[in-house]
Design goal:
The chain is about 5% helix and about 30% strand. By secondary structure, the chain is mainly beta. Strands 4-3-9-7-8 form a 5-stranded mixed sheet, with helices on one face. Strands 1-2-5-6 form a 4-stranded antiparallel sheet. The radius of gyration is 14 Å and the shape is globular. The protein starts with a strand and ends in a 10-residue tail after the last strand.
Length: about 140
């Protein structure tokens, strides 16, 4: 782990193995909805059997930054968003502006996670989703 700007904990993101949904049970598909920041919805594959939702997120090539208080136990930034000017990531962000975490079977429906990403073990062939805002599901159906 690296302490950045004295406030947040971040780990380097591994290279994405696949910039598309996984096929069958070759890995865990990860969907990140960046539309709250004017971006797009990205779908990537975390190959293999990631042990946690956090490992799936990183294995799909997304850069993850936690909070200074909770480390990576609370995801504060994905790929640098929101920016440090908007959210310093010292404590848990407000309920109106955080990365919500979702699960789904491939082609199914999103379910809001009752566990944190470091505590949830996604099965190969399933879909993990992340969306920024006040807790809405990602803007596409699970692939």
């Amino acid at each position: 782990m690296v302490l950045t700007a004295g406030l947040t904990v971040a780990e380097p993101a591994p290279r994405a193995a696949h910039a598309a949904a996984c096929t069958g049970t070759t890995g865990v598909t990860v969907v990140v909805d960046f539309t709250a920041f004017g971006g797009s919805i990205e779908v990537r594959c975390a190959p293999g059997d990631p042990a946690t939702g956090l490992a799936a997120l990183q294995g799909a090539g997304f850069a993850v930054t936690g909070t200074a208080r909770w480390g990576l136990a609370f995801v504060c930034r994905l790929d640098g968003l929101p920016t440090a000017a908007t959210e310093p990531c010292v404590n848990t962000p407000p309920a109106s502006a955080y990365w919500s975490y979702w699960h789904a079977p491939a082609g199914g429906s999103w379910s809001y996670s009752t566990l944190g990403a470091s505590s949830y073990n996604p099965a190969p062939g399933t879909v993990e989703g992340w969306s920024f805002g006040s807790g809405a599901a990602p803007g596409i159906s699970p692939p």
